[in-house]
Amino acid sequence: MRIVIAEDDPLLREGLALLLRAEGLDVVATADTAESVLAAIDEHAPDVAILDVRMPPTHTDEGVRAAVEARRRHPGLAVLVLSAYVEQSFATDLLTGGVGGLGYLLKERVGRVEEFMDALGRVAGGGTAIDPEVVAQLFTRTRQDTRMERLSPREREVLALMAEGLGNSAIAGRLVVTDGAVHKHIRSIFAKLDLSPADQVDRRVAAVLHYLENARAPRH
């Protein structure tokens, strides 16, 4: 797996590179600005780009904008965005552009090597990895949508885990239920969110995006 890292903190940047190399991965380039990481991605054609949300010059959303631009230039590129704390709008902005091969994690997750490597592998494999803390904070803001109110507590748990990027078997393991039970809950979620099998969309993706987009709506 070939990786490019963009992080303006030199200690974190080099520490992350050392960690990944120790895990046997190929870090082909590191960068400290959005402009330089885009150049590195163009040059090295990595499998995965790991980017900090906030980078010079304004330290606002350069990393997210770079991630979106990198995906535009290289549609097959997997992107894992890191943030010091939960920034819900950045998570949904990134994921709305397409959920395959995308991740959004808090930087503290990097120190939990097994969790971090699992998330990186999921993203590299074309899946999603959303930090559980991001999901938890988004979930507290979904009650304004009447369709979300239709979901049972268990269905909300299942949808939250879907938003983290877990597959059916992983959700079953997390909730200590059977795969069949998870499948039944997901079918019910689709029905309650008015997602028809006839729709020309991936219903699983649509359910997660509905969940995340709903969380962005202003509170009243």
UniProtKB/TrEMBL annotation:
Tell me which residues bear 4-aspartylphosphate: D52
Transcription regulation listed as a keyword:
yes
Identify the residues that the record assigns to the HTH luxR-type domain, covering every copy.
144-215
A Pfam family that this protein carries is GerE
**What domain of life is recorded for the organism?**
Bacteria
Domain Response regulatory stretches? 2-122
**Keyword list, A-Z:** DNA-binding, Phosphoprotein, Transcription, Transcription regulation
Q: Per its UniProt record, what PANTHER family does this chain match? A: TRANSCRIPTIONAL REGULATORY PROTEIN NARL-RELATED, TWO-COMPONENT RESPONSE REGULATOR
- In Swiss-Prot or TrEMBL terms, this protein is called Response regulator transcription factor
Give the source species: Streptomyces rubrogriseus
